[in-house]
C-alpha cells in the first residue's frame, strides 16, 4: 500500500465537507484516529486494509483506488481486470509538482494508477489542468512520453526559464524561435518566445484520459 492514501482521504474529506471526527464516528473509531492516519509526523499510525475499506464504503469510492491508487474513484475492479486481460498496462499518475522528484530518481508520491494501452507502458501520467465548468466534474490525465522529439503543434510537458515546476504547453517552432502557448489553447497570441536552450522539454503528450468526478 503506498502512502498516497493519505492524500486521497484528505481529498475526499474536502470534497464531501466531512470532518475527521465525523469520519471516525462513521467507521467506529475514536475521534483522533483519522488525524493519526493522516499525519506525516511521529504520531502517525497506519490504517488496516479493513479500515480503509470502511472509509471507501463511507465515501462510496472503490477500495482499490483508496488503498493503492489503482484506477480512479469509481473504476470497478473487474473493469481493471478486463483491461489487463486484453493487453493493457498500468502506469502511475503524478501531480506536476511531483514530476521533478520523479525525474531526479527520488521517491515521488503518485495520486493514482490507470490502465492504458500497452503501447503507452513507457509513459507516466500527469494530472492535466482542467479549466472552466469542466473542472468541477472531470479530471484529465495526460500520458507523457520521454525521449521523443516534439514537432510543431505537439503538447509537451516542459519547464520555462525560472520555473521550478513543469507545465503543459503547445509548441510551434518558426525559424530558430519556439512559440509557446499554455495548454492546448492556441487561439490567442503565444505567451512566450524562446530558443531551444531556454526550454526544458520533459516529454511529449501522447494520449489522455478523462474520468468523471464523484
Automatic annotation (TrEMBL):
InterPro entries: Cro/C1-type_HTH (IPR001387), Lambda_DNA-bd_dom_sf (IPR010982). Residues 9-66 form the HTH cro/C1-type domain. SUPFAM superfamilies: lambda repressor-like DNA-binding domains. GO terms for molecular function: DNA binding. It comes from the Bacteria. PROSITE patterns: HTH_CROC1. SMART domains: HTH_XRE (SM00530). This is Helix-turn-helix domain-containing protein. It comes from Vibrio qingdaonensis.
Amino acid at each position: 500500500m503506498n502512502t498516497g492514501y493519505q492524500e486521497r482521504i484528505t481529498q475526499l474529506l474536502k470534497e464531501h465537507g466531512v470532518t475527521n471526527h465525523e469520519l471516525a464516528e462513521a467507521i467506529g473509531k475514536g475521534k483522533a484516529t483519522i488525524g493519526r492516519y493522516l499525519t506525516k509526523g511521529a504520531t502517525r499510525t497506519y490504517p488496516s486494509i479493513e479500515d480503509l475499506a470502511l472509509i471507501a464504503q463511507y465515501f462510496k469510492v472503490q477500495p482499490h483506488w483508496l488503498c493503492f491508487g489503482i484506477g480512479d474513484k469509481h473504476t470497478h475492479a473487474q473493469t481493471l481486470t478486463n483491461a489487463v486481460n486484453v493487453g493493457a498496462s498500468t502506469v502511475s499518475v503524478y501531480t506536476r509538482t511531483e514530476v521533478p522528484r520523479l525525474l531526479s530518481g527520488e521517491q515521488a508520491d503518485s495520486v493514482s494508477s490507470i490502465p492504458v494501452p500497452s503501447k503507452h507502458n513507457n509513459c507516466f501520467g500527469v494530472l492535466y489542468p482542467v479549466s472552466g465548468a469542466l473542472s468541477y466534474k472531470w479530471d484529465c490525465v495526460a500520458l507523457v512520453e520521454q525521449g521523443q522529439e516534439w514537432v510543431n503543434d505537439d503538447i509537451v510537458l516542459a519547464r520555462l526559464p525560472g520555473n521550478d515546476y513543469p507545465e503543459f504547453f503547445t509548441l510551434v517552432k518558426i525559424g530558430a524561435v519556439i512559440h509557446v502557448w499554455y495548454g492546448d489553447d492556441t487561439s490567442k497570441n503565444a505567451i512566450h518566445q524562446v530558443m531551444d536552450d531556454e526550454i526544458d522539454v520533459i516529454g511529449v503528450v501522447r494520449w489522455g484520459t478523462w474520468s468523471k468526478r464523484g
